[in-house]
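Record now logged for everyone:
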Amino acid sequence: MATSSGLHITLASERLLTVAGLPITNAMLTMWLVMLTLFVLALIVRRNVNIIPGKVQNIAEMGYELVYGYMMQTLGDKRMVDRYLPLIASIFFFMLFSNVFDLLPIFGTFTFANGEGTVPLFHEVNADLNTPLAFAIISFLVVELSGIFTLGVLKYGSKFVNFKGGAMGFIIGLLEIIGDLARLVSLSFRLFGTIFAGEVLLLVIGYFVPYILPVPLMAFELFIGVLQAAIFAILTLAYIKLAIEEPHGGGHAHEEAYAQ
């Protein structure tokens, strides 16, 4: 954010106030604003669903059919698609709206006196590492629990602890464990790094070359925000697919996962 004294760039969110010992940060406030927006939009869409759809409803239904068809191709089971569609859609829309909100002029415009000084009232949601890391943890837990509930503890555990294949099978199991844990880092830091870098770029360009150059950059950052939301959701779906597969039956799938 730009201030009268120059540029104000923070890697972490800043505390606004403390409620019952819990610090309320400007990133949390922005997150609540995103959630409220999604909730209101959901209510509006639900109240305006008609048997004979209009243009907006047609577009929404086409998007739903596209996503449902992609998930059906990936998971190959209608029951699984119905189970995971709400999660995948929630991740995508939250990430999307969070990234879109980053382009609004509310950032750096409004400030708040927290008793220690004046801090920005809002902070980009995914430019605070806590948010991407929290979603990465949620994705990780969903993937692991999906594998356990679908295959059972022993069968799913055999993907990671395998003595039947000798030393090579044991090493592959260790690599599976490392690969699963590495997802926490890759999911969170990919999103955080991209959004934070875009925020800094827009801030610097807007400070030194205002009015003209930031416009195409904002359009590019909007595209990147949509792309990052889609990547996070698609990778979560791909990891779920790998988790619910029978052990040692999808070597090529595992190679693709490591490549991602």
Observations:
- Helices lie at 26-47, 55-75, 78-101, 130-151, 153-157, 166-208, 214-244, 251-259.
- Residues 66 and 122 are 34 Å apart (CA to CA).
